[in-house]
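Re-running Radical SAM enzyme, TIGR01210 family to confirm reproducibility after the cluster update. Everything else is unchanged from the original entry.
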Amino acid sequence: MSKKSYIIPIFIPHKGCPHDCSFCNQKKIAGEVENNSEENIIEVINRYMELYPKPITNLEIAFYGGSFTGLPIEKQVELLTPAYRMKKKGYVKEIRLSTRPDYINKEILSILEQYGVSIIELGVQSTDDHVLFLNKRGHTRKDIFKAVELVKKYDFRLGLQMMVGLFGDSGNTIKRTAEDIILLKPDFLRIYPTIVIKDTYLEILYKKGEYVPFTLEETVDICKSLLLEFKENNIPVIRLGLQSTEDIAYGKAIVAGPYHPAFREIVESEIYKDLIENNLRKYDGYELKELTIYCHPSAASKVAGYKQSNKNYLINKYHLSKIIIKPYPSIEIDTVKLEVH
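Result of re-run:
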């Protein structure tokens, strides 16, 4: 068994966040959580330590669910203590947590630094003040920039989270949010399409006809552009699409919206389809019969497309009899080379 890094996930209660954002039902999104104490966090850490292969060289403890720094300081210290103890012993390399931009200040950051936190993720979602207001976020664009500036004064790695298709969102608001994120220069980014989850304000708006979620096709097209733009600006997108839980995977919690368990694969497949078609333009006027596509081995499935969608599309559009995909390690991952017959 081989893996670059291993994560010990610790789900904290939603108590850290008193807000009810339009899209959020934390129990449905993250799964059921319990009131964690130092004792049961130690139990979780030990359980995962036994599960993972030895030796572990890159182990991370990640606090998920809720807004960690919205918890009382003494509770934050209680939860971080066993994680920090493992880090001091050399068993754990990273401690990660997520929070809101308006729950960041110098006192909190000093405590997080003292207890070994190395990665902080901020739920930005949008930088448009009207969109933030409509979705009951409880913070402003100014809060986002202030929080990022504060975090960057310490030795933390900074991640940001962005949502696409929020209530009041448009192509322009998404574009401006992307531009702001590029200005903020996080170490990494997560992008989530907005899904209507049961028992949320968005569900009420959706059922009243006041909110219409983006379609899957629209969202794929938007995220395709975002992925390319962030890549061009050296901002890694480490997640694209909502992570499946038992509820999410079986559709129990989803009312509407562009959810797909293979969302990122679909987006990246579309990027490769565009790349192939751009390369095919040089053969305009030629009668094509067979097409051989050379690509990096790790890109072969994306070149073929989700469930062979790109192959089928190209065969039908260009009246091809056959497409062959040949992986070559020497070809750069974001390029393809074509051979036509």
